[in-house]
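Q: Got a minute? One more chain.
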Amino acid sequence: MTALLAAVFAFGALAGCTSTQTGGTPTTGAQTTTGSPTSDGSDGGLSIAKYLSAPCSILKQDQVATLGTTLAATPGTGPLGPNCLWKGKDVIKNSTYTISLTEGQDFDSMVSNVKNNPVFTDKKIDGVRVISTDRADGELACLTSVQASKTDAVTVSVSASAEERATKKPCPEGERVAQLIITNLKG
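A: Always. Here it is, folded:
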């Protein structure tokens, strides 16, 4: 849990864009993916407004089922804004997910605060800019942020359980959940 909180606080300052990846999987270790910037001055054009008061509704029930065995969703508020926690039922066997909604923060500024992390990717999923990052090696936890607009984002935090680490890598898993969220935001 301490690693998850540290990751959330580190990601809270997310902003900026120099490293990018246009496809593939997130890098791990001390690597950063570089290439053409994915930030072209435009934003995702997606609205998070209807989810701010009900953050747990950002995923549909069938999508929540793909997270694995979790306790009932718990809404709350954290450093990134309103959030929903799906805590693994058994901390050894089941991963934990937190989805946070951030309103009114410049996405590029958020990215610049984490672009030098050991794990960092900046790419597009379904035409929407997505950042994945971790202050360590991405093996235990990863934060994936979807740029909904220039000032709004949805961040998926994945904390992998001991038994799922081999099959559910945190950054690819965060990007999978981010893709579900993008689908829902697009309607």
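A: The first strand starts at residue 74 and ends at 78.
Q: Perfect, thanks.
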